[in-house]
Design brief:
With 963 residues, this protein is α/β, with parallel strands linked by helices. Helices cover 30% and strands 21% of the residues. Helix 11 (303-320) runs parallel beside helix 12, helix 17 (513-529) runs antiparallel to helix 18 and helix 19 (574-606) packs antiparallel against helix 20. The longest helix has 33 residues, at 574-606.
């Protein structure tokens, strides 16, 4: 194949769609286990290991000398089988009398029975031996005298055995969220596993965990009410949840006055017993909580002045956690999650790390290199690293995102050679600038996938930990994060829609799974556009592209669909559905409608509409609805989740959460007596009666768009009036040609295109109201002026708007390809390049997308390209793309040229980065718009060619018609 042929082959193989569909079909039976092969059957097959049938359950055998965490997990399995079948298995050390089937659980080297089966070759121990947290689930015949069949769950280590047990629990239909979200499993009469079944697995990411952070007021007040605080009774529930999702690592709640080890000595002991590896956050070194310094520290938090005091403080942290599984945080930041000082004292920081490692050696009696340690390169600490600070190569480097789910840095090829490895600290919640976001899930799964896929491919896979805030609102992204960490290869981008369908099937059954998955995908994608805490009355345009109205309607449609689903669910499923689906959908819809109503209120006030006051009342009513939704949440299960939705969410004016919810300001007007008609049209802030206004102009009607437009006939007085609309052209249609207006009447105007003559006369609507008031409204029309055979996107309203995934051609050199990421865009999918670790390209290598467009305009135009807000995660120059139209020289754009905080705040707030270039169209007609990806990691989402018609809005115009 010649180089030219390689460049111009289709970069996406024709069979990709078929493969994705086939994957979905093949994976469908594994809904219980979220994409894994289903091994548990709900009928008794021939020679199968029968776990439960006809009211009886197979005994669960576990060695009394095995790890306490393994024995706890088996006890949980005992309860899960009873929950699903009604039959509670016997928990025993041996089979006792002859029996048909048993379940054997154990750790290699800890369970005599498992070791004997391995020695006899009855289980494939080689599949997991020596692996970190590996497990084997295997059905075997005649495992011991008097027993015909056994299902063996063996672990390479204690956590491997625990994960094998909880995998089996999930296989029988028990959700990890059975307690934390009240998910009730479907009842089954029979559970069995076919003879010959063998499944082995082990994680890709070594440390996989969550960080309970920013936990006041919601989680803090809940924990106080239910448990008296963050004690071992609280953490027992958290530990089990993490383990059921096959996570193994935790940074505990730490907002003052909370301290994991000091508040309850049982916390650390229980974590170790259950199998949780503990750590402390990025600014809490040496296993001590931030608040402990205020309680027990002596002197200044300044190592240059108080080294002895800090060393003794840190030594106590090591003593508190001695002998327990832990990853020790190194380094030092300022007191209270702040930079340590104005000066980047690299020498002092390196000395701190050396001294900390000496303390670790003394505490453990081991070389420091044999004790897991992490250095979090958070905020300014990354700057220390870039200025030359280094830690020993055995220390794990924890790279971080920007607190807004965009990874700041990933390892270079040289850094990937470090034996300590690398990881990522990620966020689903944040307190800080440009604005805190804590209330609900706002991070779409495709966004998580795209960023953590980068982490995986750049070998930052020693540790993944995510800030989950109060935990409860983040159920869906938490589980996806940990599932993806276990095996990223199992979840390619094309399987992302399937993930939520499988999740919904496990939680609520197959009948409504597709609908529920779409609800969750919809609200998280909508919230990802603009976080609820950042909404303002003017976020979405009330004038252009019907944007505010569409946003409110789209959310309302989701809420309506959720209401219909809940009515079809079994009563015992409805509490879980409210927590996981209905509340976030309804509350998000309500908040967005509230801010849209506030925006309309402001707009109406400028036009002196009598309905200005109605919109103010609407804002108040929607706020009361928010209060009611939270009340319903807190009442679930007799108050089980009281306080969980108490996070303030209205009234932000800066980064800090308001002390109480504050509604956006609304306007009220004095409405005079009598009737006073006015008219406003779509897309214009002006209303009839404005000085010098002789007529109003509707947006231009387009034969390719064939979209209706609207006008509002409204009252500026308190008395109702009659109106009448007349058209001078028969091909103009109005939805309501006459009627009575008390407040306002929206009238839809459309064109009967089959009635429009070849050379139409100008169309004008005459609206007659009280006191013989007449308002003229022009109905502008565009001719069907595209040449025959034209293909591609068509200019409409002075723009050509294109969703990036709808390219005409995708071209790539050999070894490269374009990847569509479903849902990774504010209005549709995103497109990126593969592999993400590839070297940079130049324009001549031809890695580009092409879009056929047709314009009626010529001359100067601008091109807006919308990208995901990808950060410069590798050292060196900023990442680049190039664009051109037709055969003009490509323009190269450095997306990281602007390093200002103001630019960063805008792109993370918008959830997108928009760049503009200028071009010249030599003539109207067909053109080819070209987008080159020169550096990997960029995700293109939307392109808008502006020929002078682009209007202000948040999301931009909807996609143009395509011939």
């Amino acid at each position: 194949m010649t180089l030219t042929m390689k460049l111009f082959r289709r970069a996406l193989a024709p069979g990709v769609g078929l493969c994705a569909a086939l994957c979905a079909v093949l994976a469908a039976p594994s809904a219980w286990a979220l994409g894994e092969r289903q091994i548990v059957r709900f009928e008794a097959g021939p020679q199968a290991v029968v776990l439960a049938d006809k009211g009886r359950a197979a005994p669960l055998l576990v060695d009394p000398n095995d790890d306490a965490g393994v024995r706890r997990a088996v006890a949980d399995l005992q309860g899960d089988i009873a929950l699903v079948t009604g039959a509670k298995p016997v928990l025993a050390n041996s089979a006792g009398s002859a029996t048909d089937s048993v379940v054997i659980v154990g750790t290699l080297g800890k369970s005599a029975l498992v070791d004997r089966l391995a020695a006899e070759g009855k289980i494939d121990a080689a599949a997991i031996r020596g692996k970190w947290e590996g497990f084997l689930i295997q059905a075997v015949a005649n495992p011991m005298p008097g027993v015909a069949r056994a299902l063996v769950v063996a672990g390479s280590d204690r956590r491997g055995a625990i994960f094998g047990v909880y995998t089996l629990s999930e296989q029988i239909g028990v959700s990890p969220w059975k307690w934390w979200a009240d998910v009730v499993p479907a009842r089954q009469a029979t559970l069995s596993v076919a003879q010959g079944t063998k499944v082995s697995d082990a994680p890709v990411v070594q440390y996989r965990g969550i960080f309970l952070n920013d936990e006041a007021p919601a989680l803090t007040n809940w924990a106080k009410e239910k448990y008296g605080g963050f004690n071992h009774r609280f953490y027992e529930k958290v530990f089990e949840l993490v383990l059921r999702m096959r996570g193994n690592y935790l940074w505990p709640a730490m907002w003052p006055p909370t301290a994991f080890y000091a508040d309850d000595p049982e916390n650390g002991r229980l974590a170790h017993e259950m199998g949780i590896i503990m750590g402390t956050s990025h600014h809490e070194p040496m296993m001590r909580a931030h608040d402990e310094w205020a309680r027990f520290g002596k002197g200044a938090w300044d190592y240059s002045k108080n080294a002895a005091g800090l060393q003794e403080f840190w030594k106590q942290g090591l003593r508190n956690s001695h002998g327990q599984d832990r990853v020790i945080t190194l380094g030092m930041r300022g007191d209270g999650d702040e930079p340590m000082s104005e000066d980047d004292n690299v020498d002092l920081l390196e000395k701190i790390v050396r001294d900390q490692r000496a303390m670790i050696e003394k505490d453990t009696g081991k070389p420091a290199g044999e004790v897991p340690q992490v250095w979090a390169l958070y905020k300014e600490v990354q700057g220390y690293y870039e200025k030359g600070m280094r830690v020993p190569d055995d220390v794990l480097l924890l790279w971080c995102d920007d607190n807004w789910a965009n990874i700041r840095r990933l390892p270079t090829p040289e850094e990937r050679a470090r034996p300590g490895g690398a990881g990522v600290y990620y966020h689903f919640d944040y307190v800080g600038g440009p604005r805190s976001y804590k209330w609900l899930n706002v991070t779409p799964i495709p966004k998580i996938w795209e960023q953590m896929h980068l982490a995986w491919q750049y070998d930052a896979k020693r540790m993944w930990i995510v800030n989950v805030g109060d935990l409860k609102p983040m159920e869906v992204p938490i589980e996806f994060f940990l599932t993806y960490a276990w095996n990223p290869a199992a979840w390619p981008a094309e399987r992302l829609p399937e993930y939520l369908r499988l999740w919904a099937t496990r939680e609520f059954g197959a009948e409504h799974a597709v609908e529920i998955a779409e609800l969750v995908e919809g609200y998280t994608r909508f919230n990802g556009r603009r976080k609820p805490e950042q909404l303002e009355p003017g976020t979405y345009s009330v004038l252009n592209y019907d944007e505010a109205g569409r946003i409110a309607r789209d959310y309302a449609a989701l809420a309506e669909r959720a209401s219909k689903v809940v009515a079809k669910l079994r009563p015992e499923q409805r509490d879980a559905f409210f927590q996981l689906v209905q509340y976030p959908v309804a509350a998000s819809a309500n908040m967005n409608e509230l801010y849209v109503a506030a925006g309309q209120n402001h707009h109406y006030a400028t036009q002196f509409r009598a309905t200005t006051n109605d919109m103010a009342e609407r804002v108040q009513a929607l706020y009361k609805n928010d209060v009611e939704l939270a009340r319903q949440y807190h009442a679930i299960g007799g108050g089980k989740w009281n306080h969980m939705m108490s996070q303030t969410r209205f009234g932000y004016v800066n980064w800090e959460q308001p002390r109480a919810n504050v509604l956006p300001a609304v306007h009220r007007i004095d409405v005079p007596p009598g009737a006073n008609m006015s008219v406003a049209v779509e897309g214009s802030a002006k209303a009839w009666g404005a000085y010098g206004l002789k007529a109003l102009d509707l947006p231009t009607f387009d034969p390719y768009v064939k979209k209706s437009h609207y006008l509002d006939i409204f009252n500026r007085g308190s008395a109702p009036f009659d109106y009448r609309i007349e058209s001078n052209q028969p091909w103009v249609a109005v939805s309501q040609a006459s009627g009575k207006v008390t407040g306002e009447q929206r009238v839809t105007v459309d064109v009967r295109w089959d009635k429009v003559p070849a050379k139409p006369q100008p169309a004008v609507l005459t609206i007659t109201g009280p006191n013989d008031t007449r308002v003229l409204v022009n109905v502008p029309l565009r001719r069907a002026d595209m040449p025959k055979g034209a293909k591609g996107f068509v200019e409409a309203g002075g723009v050509v708007s294109i969703e990036a995934a709808n390219y005409t051609r995708a071209l790539a050199p050999e070894g490269r390809s374009w990847l569509r990421i479903p849902g990774h865009g504010r209005t549709d999918a995103g497109v990126t390049t593969m592999p993400v670790t590839a070297a940079a390209l130049d324009v001549k290598q031809g890695m580009r997308l092409e879009y056929d467009v047709n314009t009626v305009s010529s001359g100067k135009v601008t091109l807006q390209v919308t990208l995901a807000p990808t950060l410069k995660f590798q050292p060196g120059a900023g990442f680049r793309y190039a664009v051109s139209i037709d055969d003009e020289a490509p323009q190269i754009v450095n997306v990281h040229a602007d390093e200002s905080e103001q630019f960063w705040e805008k792109i993370v707030s918008d959830g997108a980065a928009v760049f503009t270039t200028e071009h010249v169209l030599a003539k109207p007609g067909r053109h080819v718009l070209k987008f080159w990806a020169l550096d990997p990691g960029l995700v293109v989402q939307k392109l808008v060619l502006d020929a002078g018609g682009l209007k202000p809005s948040y999301l931009g115009p909807q996609q143009s018609p395509r011939l």
